[in-house]
Queue: 4 jobs
Job 1
Amino acid sequence: MAHQSQHLSGDKPHCLRLFRYEMEWAHILKNIYAMTDRIAKIQLDRGDGDLA
């Protein structure tokens, strides 16, 4: 949240656009993490999670 508020307080014209892109990327990465976490849990539940 602190990072977000620092970007919003800037007076540069591109600041809001950059802020929106950063938040969009953060959201995308969060979704990728959640999806890979679900896939890993499914694999472990099946017994396919043997890494050796």
Note: DSSP finds two helices and no strands in the chain.
Job 2
Amino acid sequence: MPLCARDDGLSEVVGFVLILALIVVALSLYQIYGVPAAGRENEIAHMNQVKDRFIDYKIVLDSLWLNNRNGVLLSTAFDLGTGAGATGGSAFALPPILTPPAVRGERSRRRAGGERT
């Protein structure tokens, strides 16, 4: 009985690996280009909100300085992160890995006397 190569299922395996590689490439391209484009509007809106908060803070600080007000505590809260829902596109809405979670943070500082600002 001669020894021969057993390559009966080789074309199916190669085809499966190529299809799997194509799916991985498609999902990678979507993560690179699709997800940031979908979240761009939320980032622009958040950037404008932060800019407005800084402008408000500067106006209040300037008014305190111009009116020679000393000993007045000034506090402003800033939302860090968009706080928006997941920024996923509509092309692949099924897997949750394609929609990144919302980001939110808070920053505070305590003075030497223990009061929180």
Note: The helical segments are 10-66.
Job 3
Amino acid sequence: MMSLKYDYLSAEEKEKVHDLEAKVQHAEDDKALKRYTTEITLIYEKARVRQETSHS
């Protein structure tokens, strides 16, 4: 799954990703699965952009 760990995720973001990964494992349908994985991706992307802009 998307269990890659990034140093630039905040503690809150790491917790949210962990919770969403658990929901992915028990998603009731494809729509829920897509929603959870999209949220995970957005968290990682926001953190990546924040990290990249802080080093500019």
Note: The two ends are 30 Å apart (CA to CA).
Job 4
Amino acid sequence: MRGPTSVINSTLAGIITIARQQIQVERVYGLVHGLEGALRGEVIDLSHLNHEELEKLRYTPAAILGGSRYPLTDEDIHKVIRFFKDNDCYYFLFIGGNGTMDTCLRLQNMCQQKNMPLEVVGVPKTIDNDLEVTDHAPGYGSAALTQEFVEWITPLVGEIMTVL
């Protein structure tokens, strides 16, 4: 399985809610299609979302900011770090699976080498439950239930179509 899990938007809503409560966080931004958004300058200010909008986001499946499988080069990592520095970003939370977690490690290591004060946090969400050192990643359960439902409903749909 691949693609956004049904819990990515819910996680994003939680991140926005908690970030607003932190006095050191002035604004919350989202990058369109992950770090591709940093490379292209496609950023959305999420600070203005009200309670009702955050509740809708929390229960909307998929990934409102989009997803990405773009393989970042070392040059891209340098550009992303420059983007964060130019935009006074001190915290970066990246929602995703094992590729995302690898990218977080690469970003964190490069920031440490450059002595840049950026806190990089990987927020694990994966439908294939393939993250090391985790038992169950959020997102896996919803994907597994969806697959289980499809397997359960498919024969019933066939029976219904036969009756009609």
Note: Residues 142-147, 159-164 have pLDDT under 50 and may be disordered.
